[in-house]
Amino acid sequence: MKLGKTLLWIVAAVLVLGGGYYIINKNKEKQQKEVEIVASKLDEIAVNTAKLEYKDLSADFMVNGNFEPIQQMTFPSEMSGRIINVMVKEGDYVRVGQTLATIKKDAIEVDMTQAQNNLQNAIADNQRFENAFKTGGVTKQQVDNSRLQLKNARAAVEAQGLRVRDTNVKATISGVINTRFIEPGSVVAPGTQMFEIVNVSRLKLKVAVNESEIVNLRVGQNIKVLASVLPDDEFVGKLTFIAPKADASLNFPVEIEVSNNNKLKAGMYGTAVFSTAGDAAATKAIAVIPATAFVNGVSSNTVFVVENGIAKITKIVSGRVIGEYVEVLSGLKEGAEVVTSGQINLSDGEKVRIVK
Fold this sequence. Notes:
By secondary structure, the protein is α+β, with helices and mostly antiparallel strands.
């Protein structure tokens, strides 16, 4: 009887231990799966997305660029010497032919005096040879040599005269002294930078236009121009240049000349607004994605496309910027889903979790 009870207790203990072991293992497996799910979610980067879609948008488009001076020159020295005087300072307006600085010319004037003396001797020698040749006292070759020496002496005087004049440094364009590189006492050599002069009475807005729109533009067109720092002002520019060849991004450089009202500065950001007013097709369905989808700006032509939870970096060809959207010319299929925020944390091939 006691043996039976003992066996019963042993069997019960084994069942309890086995059941406990089974439960512990099941809990461990469940916990492991939960950890894997959490880890998987941690590996996924949260992003917002938008799909390529067709919108009926105005075909008017805007292109950003920078204002540049209509003329600018880094003014170099044409001779060697020491600067005696500088007549202008940064910010001064100068005109063509105005003297900006003077270079020491003592040694040059000595050379000039010597050249003039040599010229007088050459004139006298040539006269004697000419007279002697008439009486047969000298040969034709001697007369020719005296004439050559006279020409060389005159050329030497002219050369020294140019050097003397070059000691007065004169402006070759009108504009404002943007930078002065020299001071009285500076020693300059040919090619030494002395002044940077910029003419900002008019400015050039340089932008790049894609191939689908360049065909509609003509030199001489009036273009509306905006400046980001002057939101209440509107300018009218004239299209003065269209590049005959596209750049590496398949866009065509364009220049728009704008009269300056002293508010605009070279280097400011500007926007050219190309209008299609009067065009029956001015509004049409256009394939677009949000401008925020582009990695490092629209000019990169690079977006992340989400496919099966994976972000793939993709090169596309973008067109016009129309408000908050950018036209897509090629590289994406209709319905393609692009990342619009969270790109800073992404690299090609990473898992993503779309946040609605």
